[in-house]
Design goal:
The chain has four helices and ten strands; from the N terminus they run H-E-E-E-E-E-H-H-E-E-E-E-E-H. It is about 35% helix and about 20% strand. The chain folds into two domains: about 100 residues, no CATH class; about 100 residues. The protein is an alpha+beta fold. Helix 3 packs across helix 4. The longest helix is centred in the first third of the chain and has 27 residues.
Length: about 210
């Protein structure tokens, strides 16, 4: 998968999650929580979701094309992220054209589906619109999968203890990271998460 195509698609999906689904859901219900759904993701309380390369709502659907404002207007919601909750986001304005590649969409949807299946062994996963990552917290440790971000553009899985640990397992400032390419199925992802849980229990907390 071409990294530039994957990144542009990820940013477009993040923008839709942030400004077309999470923002309207927050204004209507008070929650920003999203979830993985078949072929994509959607709101937990609002009937809006991304299914493959389409935005779907009760009674209609539209291709992921044009801008977030146009998609929001088609779905009958007000465009824009949740107000006053976070400063990060997709970095795509409401009138900026979305660039979506169907192959990249399926690649990221498959990664989220694998992540959802693995993370459910630890709890109920939430897809957070701020960083567009799917995560669970258990015993003061964050576990999750990301489709990529500015620091690590390719998809990856992570384990992030609230209190940093010392030891060979921890290879990132926030804890531990493994590229998705090295975790080809749910079993491999589960093995990484379990290794992280054991390491968090075994390794000492890092002290300044």
């Amino acid at each position: 998968m071409d990294e530039r195509i994957l990144e542009s698609t990820r940013r477009a999906l993040h923008a839709v999650a942030d400004s077309v689904i999470a923002g309207p859901q927050y204004r209507a219900t008070g929650t920003i929580r999203l979830k993985v759904t078949p072929g994509g993701f959607g709101g937990t309380l609002l009937g809006l979701r991304v299914e493959h390369t389409e935005l779907v709502w009760r009674g209609g659907r539209a291709p992921l094309a044009g801008t977030c404002r146009q998609l929001a207007e088609a779905a009958g919601v007000q465009v824009g992220p949740p107000e006053g909750l976070y400063s990060d986001g997709a970095g795509i304005g409401p009138d900026e054209p979305l660039v979506v590649d169907p192959t990249a969409v399926e690649h990221l949807a498959d990664w989220f589906a694998r992540g959802d299946a693995a993370l459910r062994t630890l709890g109920e996963p939430v897809l957070w619109p701020e960083h567009f990552d799917l995560g669970v917290t258990a015993d003061r440790v964050n576990y999750g999968v990301s489709p990529g971000d500015a620091a690590h553009p390719a998809p990856y899985a992570y384990v992030g203890p609230w209190e940093p640990r010392r030891g060979e397992f921890w290879n990132a400032p926030f804890g531990a990271l493994r590229p998705a390419d090295g975790l080809p199925d749910v079993d491999a992802l589960l093995a990484f998460l379990r290794e992280g849980r054991a390491a968090a229990e075994r390794h000492p907390v890092a002290r300044d």
